Amino acid sequence: MEGEKVTTLIQARITIPDKRTAFSGTTTAPLFAWPWEHYGNYKYLFYVALLAKYLYPTTTTEEGTEGSSWCLHILLLFLLRGLLYQLWSSYDYMFFLNRTRRISEEGIDFKQIDAEWNWDNFLILHAIVAVLAYWSFPSLTNLPLWDGRGIFCCLALHIGVSEPVYYWLHRLLHSPNLFTDYHWLHHSSKVSHPFTAGHATFLEHLVLCIVIGVPILGTVFIGYGSISILYSYVLLFDMLRCLGHSNVEVIPHHLFENIPLLRYLVYTPTYHNIHHMDMRTNFCLFMPVYDILGKTINTRYWDLHKEISSRKKTSAPGFVFLGHVVDIMAALHTPFVFRSFNSIPFSKKFFLFPFWPPTFLVMLAMWAKSKTFLVSFYNLRGRLHQTWVVPRFGFQYFLPFAADGINKQIEEAILRADRLGVKVISLAALNKNESLNGGGTLFINKHPDLKVRVAHGNTLTAAVILNEIPRDVNEVFLTGSTSKLGRAIALYLARRRVRVLMLTQSTERFLKIQKEAPEELQKFLVQVTKYQAAKQCKTWIIGKWTTPREQSWAPSGTHFHQFVVPPVIPFRRDCTFGKLAAMRLPEDVEGLGSCEYTMERGVVHACHAGGVVHFLEGWKHHEVGAIDVDQIDVVWKAALRHGLKPMQISPAIGG
């Protein structure tokens, strides 16, 4: 019976209506919006003013600048609190550590990330209230560093005042009028996350100022206040808020079995998540005893907490995209580093540079001892799609002595996917390098009985590039022409009777490709050995890195298509540069909140999309080795049929 209750509750969690649509609350109620809502990053100037006040006090005391030390404490608390929320957010996104203890298996989408973008507004509010408190009560500036009596006093005020006040105010916020006017915003977050704790209206956080302020000020007024109590209470309060809004169960159930009283004194992530499922229950701040006294505790909580905290397995994906790290800066573009940064296309930002040294050390540690790990996921038509990352950086793929280790990592990932029952695993970029493993053929030949289908996805990559080329083009210049993609593009264009200037120094490789074309079409494939040969051609397809000098041979008005990673730098101002081949995922994708490298939101590299198509079609063959030119149109039509969309050509202007 207990197992049935747990299953019922989990199913209820999945099938519960999307309250963001059902509530449709108002945004015009008094004190709903934040006063600095439209200030952007200028809102942080308040902290600059505090720093200036500390460094250049306008008043002096007998102790010199000590009279402004309260400014420093406010600044330090802001930094420590922000760091606490960020660290908890990072842990929430470490799927490779906590995937079996996730409460909701749904992903956080871009809509929720954008809604919670200014989650830290309440930290600014608390800082402003703290400044007002220091001005109103000068005694706060003379607190001792430590007073042990304050611990019991602060704890008593929290249990006796803050907890019951919050409980009844929270129940009041769930009344029809107040919920529609205010509290709906907090519940609009579909999946709980530490930042969700800050996603509420201005009025609600004003009330929270009272809840958090009573124990601090009360302890000071009684005479037992100290700086240690101030820091400890605020940070512990934040830690418990993060705990409750985490989507990962971190408290083991056996702790409550060994200490039964504890279950009434502290809540868990599961406990508060149930409140977001069933809003008639579990209203407490941190202590479930108040829900017991108010008869609002959800009785199914204990079963669900036990099931989640002791879970050993989770849902297996149907499709896996096996990527790798591009470089040290790009390594910071992951959801467990900065969620907001990962939700926009990657570009180098100034704030990333201080993280370069520690990331370099992490890279070395991963090189020494690390396995392929899960970094992101989304759901498409009821099936789980995951992105795994090989713990190797781009430059390592070009080190001859590193090849065996990289192939071992890829092989282990494929075998793991096979054990899990994954249907298709798609290899990204350098993981399918021809010189590394023959575009994946190494693994298929070594393990002929694989149930998982291995795909390099390059057939769709070729299709995307070819469909970007206007039909009236009769000549193209192709670099990287004897590569896997270059060969397929050249042969396909020859079928369209487009003259292809194939840049290669190897006559042997050129002739081998030329002989694959029908005899009457071989004349459309022309070997060239210098960039100067393309000085009259306005359609360039770049499959290898191109220097500024090499780009200079293109005539004005040339458009550069490309399939080189990383993409070339657009030096020419009089030319246009296309982006890497990519496709937009179908509109019914769910839980997608991560951008794939430099791709726009909802857009993935064409090889990723190719793997998705392979999975959706249920194809039973491996897509490895040379590209089957006959399959290019087949894969393209299948992609369109499943709702994947080509990116509109909006060439980037060089310079």
Automatic annotation (TrEMBL):
Fatty acid hydroxylase domain boundaries: 156-296
Domain Very-long-chain aldehyde decarbonylase CER1-like C-terminal stretches: 476-646
InterPro entries from the UniProt entry: CER1-like_C (IPR021940), Fatty_acid_hydroxylase (IPR006694), NAD(P)-bd_dom_sf (IPR036291), Sterol_Desaturase_Related (IPR050307)
UniProt superkingdom: Eukaryota
Transmembrane segments: 68-88, 119-137, 205-231, 319-338, 350-368
Subcellular location: Membrane
Keywords: Membrane, Transmembrane, Transmembrane helix
Membrane topology: Multi-pass membrane protein
PANTHER family according to UniProt: STEROL DESATURASE
Family recorded in the similarity comment: Belongs to the sterol desaturase family.
Full protein name: Very-long-chain aldehyde decarbonylase CER3-like isoform X4
